[in-house]
From TrEMBL:
EC code(s) of this entry: 3.7.1.3
Official protein name in the record: Kynureninase
Cell compartment(s), UniProt: Cytoplasm
Gene: KYNU
Organism: Trichechus manatus latirostris (Florida manatee)
InterPro entries: Kynureninase, PyrdxlP-dep_Trfase, PyrdxlP-dep_Trfase_major, PyrdxlP-dep_Trfase_small
One MF annotation (Gene Ontology) recorded for this entry: kynureninase activity
Residues binding pyridoxal 5'-phosphate: L137, T138, F165, P166, S167, D168, S221, D250, H253, Y275, W305, N333
Function: Catalyzes the cleavage of L-kynurenine (L-Kyn) and L-3-hydroxykynurenine (L-3OHKyn) into anthranilic acid (AA) and 3-hydroxyanthranilic acid (3-OHAA), respectively. Has a preference for the L-3-hydroxy form. Also has cysteine-conjugate-beta-lyase activity.
UniProt xrefs under Gene3D superfamilies: Aspartate Aminotransferase, domain 1, Type I PLP-dependent aspartate aminotransferase-like (Major domain)
Co-factor requirement: pyridoxal 5'-phosphate
Primary location: cytoplasm
Pathway as given in its UniProt record: Cofactor biosynthesis; NAD(+) biosynthesis; quinolinate from L-kynurenine: step 2/3; Amino-acid degradation; L-kynurenine degradation; L-alanine and anthranilate from L-kynurenine: step 1/1
Length: 466
């Protein structure tokens, strides 16, 4: 899906090892990688939590003044420092001029969402008119499915991956029920092969080819929340549309993480949240994409005031003049305080660029993988030595920044010991710990420190069980 960079992460590490004449696991390698990182100054644009402020911390194990190792940007991104400034601007405007704030300032409240949509175009690879910033992710998914899922007696299924994020699963289930369809017959779930964690592309394409005539909508994640697998969006889109299906994506874990070209790939529709890699804060303003090819054929099933053309919206004559495309799907006025926090983050992306961030991300995650495999290579594992498996695909074009790890040691123990030492990641059922080094604010030294802590925890677990 993406061309590999000229230098693979392992080769970069080896190059630096040669220059420094040191071991690959030497701390100096991480420090040199940080020196060479042209994006390292963006870390200063964010608040990094101090370990002393983290609830599970054991102060006897840490230096309380140190920064946490924050590897949970795949769940909630860190706060950009400009958020407070932008919020205060709007609160000040509200305090001083009340309703006049609807029409003045750099974020007039009536068009607050539109004032930042342009900053999203490069992140998702779409035209401004194909994007709407509104609601929460699952609300947007429902609105899109109401328009794109029009089942017929012959074409009535929705295809999705196994263990899709629960909210997507519930949304699909309820859409099927809304149409009076049998969920078991109409919800086509693709599972990995026996004994495998991730889906094979050939298996996805085979199901589409064989069953495509009965599938109305294909709905996949861009990046799977648990395994971290990045799906081949253009290939799935092309295969689905060749069989007459609409193809849409939940990009919650892909947006701000990998390069996206929704318009050029011809994706029919997509939605995403903004509080993970896009750092807009818990419950931040979500987004939706509707390809411009549908501008005259796909209409919103549910409409509201803010889907009405702005130039006649305030005539109040109750004669809807629907905005063509994605913006017609908007129902209510934009929540300006949520616009502020997203604005602060999108400006940083605009400066850094997704292309450069993705390049760093490949190296950052590759360095993490390199270090884990060096210490816990299955091939040379002793029978008693703890095992660390990476279930995320090894190919860089099949993953974003997240690696999901499983352990021979009890996962609950490993997770709690990491938390006590100021590592912020998460444990997800059934047995994974998700670790996401985010290129905007994580460093190579963060990775080095994480691996050092993981080794000491696993060594302690081994001693405990021997």
């Amino acid at each position: 899906m993406e061309p590999s960079p000229l230098e693979l992460p392992a080769d970069t590490v080896q190059r630096i090892v040669s220059q420094l004449r040191c071991h690959p696991t030497d701390e100096r390698v991480a420090l040199r990688l940080d020196e060479e990182d042209k994006l390292r100054h963006f870390r200063e644009y964010f608040y990094i939590p101090k370990v002393q402020d983290l609830p599970p911390i054991d102060l006897s194990l840490v230096n309380k003044d140190e920064n946490a190792i924050y590897f949970l940007g795949n769940s909630l991104g860190l706060q950009p420092k400009m958020v407070k400034t932008y919020l205060e601007e709007e609160l000040d405007k509200w305090a001083k001029m009340g309703a006049y704030g609807h029409e003045v300032g750099k974020r007039p409240w009536i068009t607050g969402d539109e004032s930042i949509t342009g900053l999203m175009t490069d992140i998702v690879g779409a035209n401004e008119k194909e994007i709407a910033l509104m609601n929460g992710l699952t609300v947007n998914l429902h609105l899109l499915l109401l328009s794109f899922f029009k089942p017929t007696p012959k074409r009535y299924k929705i295809l999705l991956e196994a263990k899709a994020f629960p909210s997507d699963h519930y949304a699909v289930e309820s859409q099927l029920q809304l149409h009076g369809l049998n969920v078991e017959k109409s919800m086509r779930i693709i599972k990995p092969r026996e004994g495998e964690e991730t889906l094979r592309m050939e298996d996805i394409l085979e199901v589409i080819e064989k069953e495509g005539d009965s599938i109305a909508v294909i709905l996949f994640s861009g990046v799977h929340f648990y395994t971290g697998q990045l799906f081949n969006i253009p290939a799935i889109t092309k295969a689905g549309q060749a069989k007459g299906c609409f193809v849409g994506f939940d990009l919650a874990h892909a947006v701000g993480n990998v390069e996206l070209h929704l318009h050029d790939w011809g994706v029919d529709f997509a939605c995403w949240c903004s509080y993970k890699y896009l750092n807009s804060g818990a419950g931040g303003l979500a987004g939706a994409f509707v390809h411009e090819k549908h501008v005259h054929t796909i209409k919103p099933a549910l409409v509201g005031w803010f889907g009405h053309e702005l130039n006649t919206r305030f005539k109040m004559d109750n004669k809807l003049q629907l905005i063509p495309g994605a913006n017609g799907f908007r129902i209510s006025n934009p929540p300006i305080l949520l616009v502020c926090s997203l604005h602060a983050s999108l400006e940083i992306f605009n400066q850094a660029t997704v292309k450069a961030l993705r390049r760093k991300s490949i190296l950052l995650t590759g360095y993490l993988e390199y270090m884990i495999k060096h210490y816990y290579n299955k091939d040379k594992a002793e029978s008693k030595k703890p095992i660390v498996n990476i279930i995320t695909p090894p190919h860089i074009e099949e993953r974003g920044c997240q690696l999901t790890l499983t352990f021979s040691a009890p996962v609950k123990y490993v997770f709690q010991e990491l938390e006590k030492r100021g590592v912020v990641c998460d444990k997800r059922e059934p047995n994974g710990i998700r670790v996401a080094p985010v290129p905007l604010y994580n460093s190579f030294h963060d990775v080095y420190k994480f691996v050092s802590l993981l080794i000491s925890i696993l060594d302690a677990a081994e001693t405990k069980n021997s």
